[in-house]
Amino acid sequence: MRRRSLLAVLAVAAGLLSACTSEDPKDDSNAPKPGTLRVLASSELSDMTAVFDRVREDTGITVRPTYMGTLDAVDLLARGKADGAYDALWLSSDDYLRLRPEAARKVVSETPVMSSPVAVGVRPATVRELGWKPEDVTWSQVDRAVQDGKLTYGMTDPARSNSGFATLVSVASALSGAQSALTDADVAKATPRLKEFFQGQKLTSGSSGWLATAYRRRGTVDALLNYESVLKGIPGLTVIRPRDGVVTADYPFSSLASTDARTREDVRKVTADLRTDAVQKLITDTTHRRPVVPSVRPAAGLDTGRRRELPFPGSRSVADGLLDSYENELRRPSRTVYVLDTSGSMEGGRLAALKKALTGLTGDFRDREEVTLMPFGSHVKSVRTHVVDPKDPGAGLAAIRRDTDALGADGGTAVYTSLEQAYDHLGTDRDTFTSIVLMTDGENTAGAEAGDFDGFYRALGRDRRDIPVFPILFGDSSRSELQHIADLTGGRLFDARQGSLDGAFEEIRGYQ
Amino acid sequence: MRRIAGIVLAVLLIGGVVAAVVAGRHGEDKGTATKTVRGVIGSEKADFFADPDVVKALAARGYTVKAEASGSWAMEGLDLKGYDFAFPSSQAPADQLARKYHVQEPLPRPFYSPLVVVAHRAAADVLAANGLAVLDGKNRGTLRTGAYVDAARHDRTWQQLKGAKAHGELTGTLYIASTDPESSNSGALYLAAASYVANGGKVVAGEADLDRTAPLLHKLVSVQGAQQSSTDAVFRDFVSGAGNPLVLVYESQVAALLAQRHGVDDLVVLYPDTTVNSDHTVVPLNADGRALGELLSTDPALRGLAVRHGFRPQGDAAEFVAATAGRAAYLNQKLTGVRQAPVPTSAVLHEMARRARG
After folding, report:
1. Residues contacting A209, CB < 8 A, separation 6+
2. Per-domain residue ranges for chain A?
């Protein structure tokens, strides 16, 4: 419940962030321009560049996407913030949109352009060990393999990624034994089984791209749950569409009520072009999605056997309830150390921004989550750990806010020494999604050097090396220094200079 | 509270549903003096009015039509000032519009199209093996509405049907996927047909009938979960191999698809033995609108083009039969064995949809 009210806040942050991550920072992506469609799009569509180029050739219309998670995009629409800022909407699916009437009424027409079902991508060796015939595998079998400790997997965060949400609905529908659209009762009944199933989830990610990278790096995870199109793009996976049903994304290109007739005509032209045989063929060949016209065959390697379509929940209470229980109950909890630069240079506006961002996050921490605040200057100033206890979540969150409020800026910048201390703090004894967030506004000036840290990290045990650092670029910090830390530890760099600190912290939530 | 929200929503939806379908033709006049008529149309006719041959045929008779698409049920709340006609996809919303704008009956009904259920072969065979459908060929059959309603009432699943086991995709509750009845015409007409059957072969009129049929209709809708808002979308999903095994669409969509493409080999078109026609009805708002309505009804070239788009022109079944001769394996050209259920009044249908969704 808590996190839902927060979505509104988050959407703004995500919006700012996304708006600012367009390739050319000088390019004002919010200004309307004739011949350009500003499209609010699911991040899954970032593989469509070749198709956008083709559409421009065919129609003279430029598609300019701004990528955002589905829930955030729907929230933006619902609050009227997309009015005038976007000319069209292109989500992986409008299923969730339909559950939010105030968002749904912003949409005039929806035209499915392509489709991709949720699937399980498994290492061929694991398929052999399990004795699976890929075309016959059911969710029950996947579940059994997880319960038997023979299958671990990664998936994207359902709160931030459409692929994660569709995966969650597929799994919950299949494992609950629901014969039709999920109800609250189905979810409640399936909770124990789902909880066991999600014990097998060893990787979480805010985006499909990083999920694939982390999967390759880790090397110990057996499978990924995602859209078939994403899995087909990762070499060496056996892609299984479970026989007992999937949720399929149909990528409807949608026009918006807030736009004028001329814009909607451009949307219609683009949609018509996307459904021509030539473009449908380009789509399936380059993105592994399935065409929606019968005259174009799915790309080679896309099995055409039919699957049951699992109905998507028909009410917001079921969908949000499922999401809520995933975050707070079903998934393994997260455990994070926030290594926070509070050196002298943070004094004033920067420290205020940090406090605001951290305080904002307290609305988003999940039940059972363990949060450690490790502010540093020339050395680590304090190590304070709080747990969001499901019985009294308010207490832990209030304590985090109190500690945040008490942060003060002084001293130098001991980035590497502090990071080493964060690794020391994090044992690997607990079953959690463990990670480190590093926020710094300057270059390392005290304590261990970069080379020292490299040596320290390489000497860590295997389990600890699996703990990624997510550095946030802020103020005068060095991109190359932080990128190196991200690359070394298998994390990802977030840029709060282009966007906001709130936005960066929030985006990292998907990876925790 | 929820109900009130639903009504408010329905009203608000109206503002959002107007889309320009044929805009931007300014400056393309080729010197032929044509009269421009403006109208709002159901979205399933967008392809028809955008067809260059239709544009040409209309121009030959002196008309340029500027059509914007809108949900048929949403037209009621639109400000139609400055428009010459409305062209919803069934009679109930048309009659309501005619009353509102004091339009003289009869209204021109140039063409119609029955609701049909599309299925893949495997699903159709299982239905037939279990007495839910009768197939009269490889690609065509009749859905026994009474048996289907009965199965729905008892939460029958595919697994309980003989022969479903051989097809992994045929599991879960047996249901026909339709569009959202509160915003889309085909979804509303589905309820009209089902309620007629559930009401013992009588059209639902009044509170008692609504009460009696509501539990079943709610079931037919709620099992589907989130519903699509346009018939085009559900049909696309079906064509791409996604979605439910049974999908309710307009015959015109199937006929248009068959006209364009060949080798939809696996498709079976099931005509419910009790169905409802989508009567595409012109509501003329002035003399120009009426003239256009008459033209669409009488001009042989335009009637022929309507058939190309899968519609059945009123009054002369032979035209459709002749033009679809090559598609007879799929289409029940003469609608043999198909009974038309009358559609409840607009107010009753609205209430029915609201309760089914609620």
Report:
1. A46
2. 2-114+250-291, 116-248+307-327, 333-509
CA distance A261 to chain B (A): 5
Fold match flag (A116-248+307-327 vs A333-509): no
Nearest CA in chain B to A136: B168
Chain A contact present for B259, CB below 8 A: no
Residues of A in contact with B225 (CB under 8 A): 180-182, 311-314
Residue A268 with chain B: CB contacts under 8 Å: 19-21
- Neighbouring CB atoms inside 10 A of A397's CB total 22
The domain over range B113-276+338-357 is classified in CATH as 1.10.1380.10: no
pLDDT tens-place string over residues A462-494? 889 999 999 999 988 889 999 999 999 999 999
pLDDT digit string, tens, across residues A101-141 = 889 888 877 888 999 999 999 999 999 999 999 989 999 99
- Nearest Cα to Cα of residue A161 among A68, A225, A272, A295: A68
Q: Which superfamily does A333-509 belong to?
A: von Willebrand factor, type A domain (3.40.50.410)
| DSSP annotation of B19 | E
Question: What residues have CB less than 8 Å from B112, skipping those under 6 apart?
Answer: B277, B278, B279, B280, B311, B312, B314
Inspect the interface and report whether the beta carbons of B261 and A294 lie closer than 8 Å. yes
- pTM attached to this predicted model: 0.84
- Mean pLDDT, range A176-205, rounded to an integer: 91
ipTM rounded to 2 decimals: 0.78
B2-110+280-322: CATH topology is D-Maltodextrin-Binding Protein; domain 2 (3.40.190)
Q: Is B201 on the interface with A (CB under 8 A)?
A: no
Q: Which of A98, A114, A265 sits opposite B226 (nearest CB)?
A: A98
